[in-house]
Request: fold
Amino acid sequence: MRYQPIYDIAELCVRHNLKEVVLCPGSRCAPLTLAFARHPGLNTRTFTDERSAAFIALGIAQATASPVIVVCTSGTAVYNLAPAIAEACFSQTPLIVISADRPAEWIAQHDGQTIFQREIFGKHVKKYFELPQDYEHPDSEWAVNRIVNEAINLSIQLPAGPVHINAPFREPLYPKPEQTIRFSTDVRVIREQASLPGLTVDQRSKISSAWPGFNNILIVAGQQTPDPVTTHALSEFQKKHDVPIVHDIISNLHEVDGTLQHSDLFLGQAADNLKEMLRPDLLITFGQSLISKNLKLFLRKYPARSHWHIQPSGPVTDTFQNLSDVFYTSPHAFLQFVTSMETSATFEGQKQKNYYKLWEVEERRTMRVLQEFFTQPELSELSMVKILIEHLPDNVNLHLANSMSVRYANFIGLTANRKGIHVFSNRGTSGIDGSTSTAVGHSLVSRRPNFLITGDLAFFYDRNAFWHNYELSNLRILLLNNHGGLIFDVLEGPSSIPEAKEYFITRQALTARKLCEEFGFDYIRPDHTRKLKNSFLEFTEGGGSAKVMEFESDTSRNKHMLEQLKTKIKDSYEL
Ligand SMILES: Cc1ncc(C[n+]2csc(CCOP(=O)(O)OP(=O)(O)O)c2C)c(N)n1
Reply:
């Protein structure tokens, strides 16, 4: 068969233990579509909108912790994968993107559905690969096998990420009806024997000699996928050292007792002299981006004497502009080592204890204000997010869209007794274009219930997330419909200019009722405050079809509530 090396890509993927394939319709990609669809070892699903398809693939890759193959036809179809590829790049999610193409001599020759596909995703893929365009020669067979092996291995090499294989196909693209697609039994697999770097002797000695010289050590964790190994290592560290551990809801570290999750709220209101006292001497960071702008600003304005960043490999960012040391190791290896070090019961040790207490006092103060704040009966988006978080069962996925949804949830946080709640958010690029599709990707492959909190622009932008033939019975969406982008009413810059409503907040009139009818979802409107509890019980209940709970309100009410909360935190310093 002419396309045998292409059909064998499916076999190779199976031998690399890949299971999930996202296909998009088209003719040029027929050899790939048929190979993946007919291979019994793969789960294939098809989605018409490539933008949504690629975000769904991203969600599947997150849920399965394994690379997902995405196939599309030539032309603009390829460009539509770009937003999710960019998110996968910055969130370090492995995707194997295979685009079909015309042979090189037919590009830009008015032959239809062709664009310039070579290196189309630029730096957003770890590597661009081009398959040979004629498959008959044995070298081509070898090249296809070698390239796909390399692409799969590269996608999972840390930092993981997307790779792009462009595959030019010459017609005929389809087998004849009497032809059967078979997969070779001797497909070669090149396996990379990866290992996580531990700490070297030199690194250990640097850490143990420098550590006692710091009084105010602070740990800040950015976004991370849920990882019980890091959670455990941090819990053990916490028992031994009086080091404040600050993180966001997307750091997935809430199960570590005694961490600090409300720094965004109190650092936004704290006076300069308090911030000076909170300034770290040694800042230790790991994970990816932070949601909290106030935390970022604080760490830039009050820089630590040293900033150590821990990551297994890859390019390093200098988010707080004072990075001093990078330890290429895993956070858990680093934490295990510093946990094993002896703590000093000296005056210096007491100083660290006092520093820890200082952060703890701020965290407790903010939690008290929050508790009191939510005793008022007035409903807002923030209180809806709080109620949902309280009603979440254990062992669910919580997906947070950009932009206010992830911030609201971060203001509220999760307590350590909430077990098995995994938090996801497209914060690699913070786009509003694929939050729903990413959550849908999780729903398709995960048995866990998936709860998405989203604003209306993000929700209606990405409604093709639902436009396919697959069941979404484990999906629950809390839609915070303020008929525009509240974030632009909250941000100081855009909110105060005359164009704010029209061009920034961007008013829109839709509600989700008709969409729910169209897709057969249950639609819940929590209209009556008295019946709120029942609405949430109905919403969080398992089984049935997907459910959307729509809370409609206006931007000014929510803006007012947020301002009130900030004022209350500020006032708490004056009591
Ligand atoms: C693809 C993309 N386009 C534009 C933006 C800029 N942006 C950030 S937040 C936002 C508004 C989001 O509105 P909504 O989903 O209603 O959420 P809310 O701000 O009300 O929470 C926009 C347009 C973006 N992040 N991504």
User: Anything to note?
Assistant: The mean pLDDT is 95. The chain has 23 helices and 17 strands.
